[in-house]
Amino acid sequence: MTSKLIAPSVLAADFANLQRDIEMINNSNADWFHIDIMDGVFVPNISFGMPVLRDIAKHAKKTIDVHLMIVDPDRYIKTFAALGSNILTVHYEACTHLHRTLQAIKVEGMKAGVAINPHTNVNLLEDTIQDIDLVCIMSVNPGFGGQSFIENTYEKVKQLRKIIEKKGANTLIEIDGGVTNKNAKQLIDAGADVLVAGSFVFKSENPTKTIEQLKEIIKV
Q1: Do residues 183 and 157 touch, judged by C-beta distance below 8 A?
Q2: d(CA 139, CA 93)
Q3: Please, are residues 154 and 190 in contact by the beta-carbon 8 Å criterion?
Q4: What is the pTM of this model?
Q5: pLDDT (tens digit, 9 = 90+) per residue, 146-204?
Q6: Which residues are CB-neighbours of 173 under 8 A, at least 6 positions away?
Q7: Is 47 in contact with 41 (CB distance < 8 Å)?
Q8: How far is the CA of 53 from the CAs of 59, 84, 120, in angstroms?
Q9: How far apart are CA 175 and CA 188, in angstroms?
Q10: Which residues does the annotation mark as catalytic?
Q11: Is 126 exposed, middle or buried (0-12, 13-18, 19+ CB in 10 A)?
């Protein structure tokens, strides 16, 4: 049984105190940095770009999990590898040739992730699941932090877990959006491996303690 992971979402950090918040994650019980890259086209929001990711990577001492919410992600695979990404996640909905994209990510030495929007059926990943290191199930509509959790997510996690087991894959299941201490245990019980927590961590009075509490809740 692999240990369950917490990945604070840097999108919810205080950008005026970014180094402070990066150090907080470094010194906390968190496992990964989750970094959302948005282009204003695939999602109706723009987040940070390459220079900010490069600077985060300079200071981060943990796995850098980059989630691309952009159109035509293939253009930037080499760039994100060079910037220090350990895991690169592309959206199923943004890839015309998903298998080719996954191979291109792996050639650059990164783990390959696929994100799916709330309306996308997990069965669409059945043919490529053995090539996917991580599936990021969006439990809110992508683009903005602080949204309410979509309850159908539990069912999707269970369905995806069955596909992974049936195919004998080692794919991790990541949940992104609306994760709190109220649903963390239920998500893990449904079959999730990695929980991305943004607003719940960074808007709390003591983010380090909040991460610690989440880790305690998801202990298996």
Answers
A1: no
A2: 15
A3: yes
A4: 0.96
A5: 678 999 999 999 999 999 999 999 999 999 999 999 999 999 999 999 999 999 999 99
A6: 134, 135, 137, 157, 160, 161, 164, 191, 192, 193, 194
A7: no
A8: 10, 8, 28
A9: 10
A10: 36, 176
A11: middle
